[in-house]
Amino acid sequence: MDGDIGDFLRSRRARIQPEEVGLASYGRRRVPGLRREEVAQLAGVSVDYYIRLEQGRGTSVSDAILDAIARVLRLDETEHAYLRTVARPHRAKKDRTPAPRVRPGVQVLLDGMDRMPAFVLGPRMDVLAWNTLADALSGFSRMPAATRNIPRHVFLDPASRDLYPDWAAVAAQAVANLRVDSSHDGDDPRLSALVGELSLRSEDFRRLWADHEVKECAYGVKRIRHPVAGLLTLPYETLAVPGELAQTMVVYTPEPGSETAERLALLGSWATTGPTRPARP
Q1: Which residues pair with 118 in a beta bridge?
Q2: For 5-14, 56-65, 114-123, 249-258, which range has the lowest pLDDT when averaged over its residues?
Q3: Of 29, 119, 192, 271, which residue is 20 to 30 A from 174 by alpha carbon distance?
């Protein structure tokens, strides 16, 4: 997306004070953090070169220069990878045509995990498939197919604030993950449309998107307050679907014998014996 690299680098410069990198700070600064010329000096490049990079005109920039800038700005591994991608969009662009459905074998795998909620995400964090327990937990089958998307659910569905006791953290993670997607598919019109819609309809999304946080979270713990099962503490793992660059499987992995595991077992029983079964994607 146009302007991503400039906004990203400016936001990272603002996080670092001159004193932190051994520079003297004279007088009051108009903007917080490091100036462009200071980043250029510390990275060992000319000021003009760094300015062109921040303006998105440095498509031939080398790994060595990007590594030096990442070191100066103290980027973590995910942010560093993001910088390399957005700095050279034409070199980094991949021909990825996401399938609207997962392979049948992946659905069989999902269905076989009857004790663990599991679902598959595609580009833009669209929800592509799920098992019965994940549906009972998150209600994917009740979402319109055209809008079955994690960021859309988090920011536009008022019920999400009740579903996630730690809503602010969940929202920030959703945006950080979407930023990673944007580095790979910045020219995707559906991604641009999603970001545009969320920006127009959600002040929280606008604020978080402007922060330019970039983070992939492969594992962690999420709390969900379910109307039937109650408060659940759910560790999760994120796995790449083999052969599908744009698909990942998210699996909640409650500790066996824990209160959450017992509540999920009851929820699973309720889901499979209720009057209606969840619809398949």
Answers
A1: 251
A2: 56-65
A3: 271
- Which tens digit of pLDDT belongs to each residue from 54-77? 887 766 788 888 888 888 888 888
Work out the average pLDDT over 213-238.
92
Two tokens, residue 74:
């103290």
Tell me, what amino acid is at 277?
A: R
Q: Which residue reads 């004790």 in tokens?
A: 115
- The distance from CA 196 to its chain's CA centroid, rounded to whole angstroms, is 16
- Residue 130 has φ and ψ, to the nearest 5°, of -160, 170
Residue 230 gets the label, from left (phi > 0), alpha (psi -120 to 50) or beta, of: left
Closest alpha carbon to 185 in 260, 245, 129, 255? 245
Q: Which residue has the tokens 């680098």?
A: 9
Give the other-Cβ count within 10 Å of 96's Cβ: 13
Please spell the DSSP secondary structure of 157-173, one letter per residue. Answer: -TTHHHH-TTHHHHHHH
Count CA atoms within 13 Å of residue 5 on its CB side. Answer: 24
Tokens describing residue 45: 């490049």
Q: Using an 8 Å Cβ cutoff, are 153 and 144 in contact?
A: no
Q: Quick one: angle between helices 36-43 and 4-13, nearest 10?
A: 90
CA distances from 257 to 30, 116, 132, 262, 264 (A): 57, 13, 21, 7, 11
In 3-state terms the chain splits into helix, strand, coil percentages (rounded to 5) of 50, 10, 35
CA 177-180-182 angle, to 5 degrees, is 115
CA distance 204 to 128: 25
pTM: 0.73
Query: 237 - beta bridge partners?
Result: 219, 251
- Measured in Å, how far apart are the chain's first and last C-alpha atoms? 30
How far is it, in rounded angstroms, from Cα 148 to Cα 278? Answer: 15
